[in-house]
Design brief:
317 residues
């Protein structure tokens, strides 16, 4: 977690801002990558903050304005969404092409390695991209100059080993600091004996280990299926409609009818749809909740976390 989400941004953002330590034999005027300065940095930060309504609530904390908050407890999760999510778009045509293309190799490799399931072909691609990134960093930033050796932090070299370690021990998301911090937080929530908290914590940890051992030996001891909330409608294949819901069917307009007709025709469904009952939310198989425009557009933009855009992908290996 700390390597991609903290160490790498902590190297590149100061470089791009021109605030990184400069040797006496070097000159910041020669740093062609230092473009995030003055108004450009403020405008960039405002764009990051303006993206908040477009992060679904399931993404938890959205990245704050880095121009104002990057030194005020900026979280690893914020860096992850900012640097690897928004970054390729916001840095495009801001960074010179050679630095932007180099940065995109990093983003591609890290995005692959942050997945829960990684195909061997993807793992090979991530390895190639990150090795290229590490090698090219010395070529385009350090430029074989002794007065820039301090640019080459251990984190640059460590990136080239992540893919091989993933092959050995599995995706980092299942054993990284994310999982450890979540466990620490959960155990902390379970402390009820405040007069002797450490003993209480030790017993809660022991209980957790015992329960995990039972689940491993008897997988059926805990039902896998979750109960749907009251009023929900099970659609099958782990999809479910969640309330609110229209209390009566309403007519659809011409554009909506055309969309329904096209869908029915493409799926071989013989149905003439003239009225529909609207539902506010849909639960996906991954347990994320998406919302319809019907309810989402009622919220003020400042309080909105847009959740109605779904990316559908088909992967053939």
């Amino acid at each position: 977690m700390h390597l991609p989400a903290l160490n790498i941004p902590d190297l590149f953002i100061p470089l791009w801002r021109g605030t990184f330590e400069c040797d006496k034999a070097d000159a910041k005027a020669s740093w062609t990558w230092a473009v995030l300065q003055g108004d450009a940095w403020k405008e960039h930060g405002a764009l990051v903050a303006d993206a908040t309504p477009y992060f679904p609530g399931s993404f938890d904390r959205p990245p704050r304005n880095p121009a104002e908050k990057i030194s005020s407890g900026y979280k690893a999760w914020e860096f992850l969404l900012y640097f690897y999510g928004l970054g390729p778009c916001l840095f495009f045509k801001l960074l010179p092409d050679v630095y932007w293309e180099h940065y995109c190799k990093l983003v591609r490799g890290i995005r692959i390695l942050m997945q829960e399931e990684i195909h061997p072909r993807e793992l090979a691609e991530a390895s190639a991209r990150l090795i290229e990134f590490s090698t090219e960093f010395e070529e385009i930033y350090v430029q074989r100059r002794a007065d820039r050796i301090h640019f080459v932090r251990p984190s640059i070299h460590a990136l080239s080993h992540i893919a091989s370690e993933t092959e050995r021990v599995g995706p980092g998301i299942i054993y990284s600091q994310w999982a450890i911090e979540r466990t620490i937080g959960n155990l902390g929530e379970e402390i009820k004996q405040h007069s002797n908290p450490f003993s209480n914590l030790a017993h809660r940890g022991l209980r957790r280990c015992q329960v995990n051992a039972l689940k491993s030996m008897l997988p059926d001891i805990e039902p896998l299926e979750e109960k749907l909330p009251q009023g929900a409608k099970d659609l099958g294949q782990s999809y479910a409609l969640l309330r609110a819901v229209d209390n009566a069917a309403r007519p659809i307009d011409d554009l909506e009818k055309a969309a329904f007709d096209e869908y029915c025709e493409s799926n071989g469904i013989d149905m003439d749809i003239t009225h529909v009952i609207r539902w506010a939310r849909l639960r996906l198989p991954n347990r994320q909740i998406v919302r319809s425009k019907w309810k989402e557009e009622l919220k003020a933009k400042g309080k909105l976390r847009c959740s109605r855009n779904i990316k559908v992908g088909f992967y053939l290996f």
